[in-house]
Amino acid sequence: MKTKITIITFFLFSVTNIFAQTKNVTVSGIIKDENNKTALPFVNVVLKTESNNTFVTGTITKDDGRFSIPNIKSGNYTIEVSMMGYKTKTQPLFIGNLSDFIDVATIEISENTNTLAEVTVTSKQNNISNKMDKKTFSVADNVAQSGGSVLQTMQNLPGITVQDGKVQLRGNDKITVLIDGKQTGLTGFGNQSGLDNIPASAIEKIEIINNPSAKYDANGNAGIINIIYKKNKKEGFNGKVGYTNGFGALWVRKENLPTIRKQYQLTPKVNPSISLNFKKNKINAFFQGDYLYTETLNKNEFTTRTYNNGEIINQQVKRNRNTHFVTTKAGIDWSINDNDLLTISGLFGTEKIIDNGDQPFFNQDLSQRKRLWQFLEDELKTTVMATALFQHKFQEAGHLYNIGLNYTFHREDEKYFFDNILPTSSGKDSFKLLSDEQVLDLNFDYVKPLKYGKIETGIKFRNRIIPTNMQFFPGQNSPLDASAGGEATYKELIPAVYGNYVFENKKIEAEIGLRVEYVGLQYDVNPNHPTYKSDGYNYTQPFPNVRLAYKINDANKISLFFNRRVDRPNEVDIRIFPKYDDAEIIKVGNPALRPQFTNSLELGYKKTWESGSFYSALYHRFANGTITRISSTIPNSNLIYAVFQNADKSFNTGLEIVLTQDITKWYAMNFNLNTYQNKIDGFTVSNKYPIVNSFFIDESKIVSGNAKWNNTFKIPKMFDAQLTAIYLAPDIIPQGKIASRFSLDFGIKKAIQKGKGEIFVNATNILNSMIVRKDIQGKNFNYTSSDYNETQVVRFGYSYKF
Predict the structure, then answer these.
(1) Are 359 and 315 in contact (CB under 8 A)?
(2) pTM of the model
(3) CA distances (Å), origin 329, targets 130, 332, 349, 476
(4) How many CB atoms are closer than 10 A to CB 257?
(5) What sections of 634-705 are H helices per DSSP?
């Protein structure tokens, strides 16, 4: 046994690169006369390696005595200052990996008419090692998912899984999604949304931040995903155009229950895109435009509900969905002078959704249809975002402040029309929802480089308001609760202040930060609502973060993280209106929902070598007031109500491993393994809608995880190919479990037209094996479900750079 442990330990700590990036650092400072303290122009400043005194680069000081040397790789150097009539002065200089800028402050030299011998100190070139808090992936490298949405692109990234249309990091979907570092209505403020409708063609890269520092908003206990739009800064006029086509639902995976409309087949996917940029003198103008049209078998779920009284109901939820999504982003960078930059940009997006749904309900042997619930969903989402950013750079490189103003308007205009067909009657039901979200963010951020790190500080203010209005129009024998409609208004005010200190020397890295947030939330409810009343909360809370790292040597590093974060209920989580996209499993919000606070610890290790790297992280998260959805029934009814609640404590403990290796010149791979235990303590809950219903939920826990194996091939004549295998182990969900899933994706692309053009073809879930199976145990009932929705898609496309 000891021998096995020794072998495993040796493998973990000696075999394998987590997507490390070589950071280029700018070194700056000022040269002065030692006696009279005046700045000295035209002084030679040279950087040499410490180990063998080899010249690296150099410059001369400006009229004000300042110098700046860009593009220096991490390592140990000596900085040498010389000028005729002065003594040559050298001093050691360590360039780390935590800051893009190093300020050596003031170097003073003294007059001397004698020529002195050069003084040198030794140095050793470092292999770049990142902070292990962030991974960055280029969307262009994900060949197997080219031409799809951002959500589909993320499915192949290490550490990410996708479940029920939501992204999970290490088994947790409490994630903050940013676009270019900002929260927007496209992806949601707080909870994630809309990722399946953002074209990947608009995106340059995706950052996964598992341990955010204090400069980020405190929400999102599982971490942050930052989606970075394309933006070019080449001189003159340039750009890129592309077109993608594809088809999904290539065959019927499971036949419909009787008497309903056909499932979508051979669903088309169309995605033209254009990116334009013009830069001349002090102006850089940019534009990104994308259109995504998809027809999708969005849901095809078969469910068997079994009640304690012996009744069994078989049902199907099938949605044929058409989506038109348009997004444009444009802006201008104006370099006012060498120190001041003004950026003004705007984003506009519209998402038009048409759903044709069928939901039949049958008895156990399908001999009797109890209900046919057919619906048409007509929804239009509109997002407008305007951003202004002013940046002032001081004389020292990297010493700057930013002032930003961001305004977002997001409208949700949703209409549902139902045919409620019963054995003895038919009725027509409908409802409409109008929600206008307005968010104003104002922030100030300041960065000051130091000789061995930097300091960051800033303030942020957010004001958010969401008035909603839901109107129900019930027909004959309708399941709709008309009294649960009306108006409600969500108001949120968040001022915050943060500070972050970064230190780095040859062996030690430290990052210590604190963010303090005040949150005032008020949810005003229509006073005539039969169940819910106006509610709200406020708090002032500290959110510290600590990162300590020790560099064992140039190729090995360990790092320890601590983080405290919060997940505030989003407006849709507390929304008082029942949703009837399922006629008998009804989702409802809860105005009494409170924030979930989470503390996390992580121990990371990274080893790099010339052709690859190995990364491992042992993590533990524990949360109070865990937010989850709880399902229950009421007496004399088979309707199931799924209501958001605060459970008690929950725990997530796991190990993540990422191995990357260039095997040959033409083949490279990366393997990601994430295994964890999810546990939710037992708790008592009281669902208030539609009537008070209290019961106890037993403790639930499971050991789960996922594995991803990405294989990339460099084929002669400018071909690139990718084969990705994904396995998701069984996991727990509220009141139940979800079964294991597996998929295999493949893609190939070829550069043409002297590298300016590119063609590709890919296929997702080529074995058609991704089926979502759930088992839910509620009070007085249980149900099992299998979703055969569209997951297999074939795409092909072309792009051209000019």
Answers:
(1) yes
(2) 0.79
(3) 31, 11, 9, 47
(4) 19
(5) none
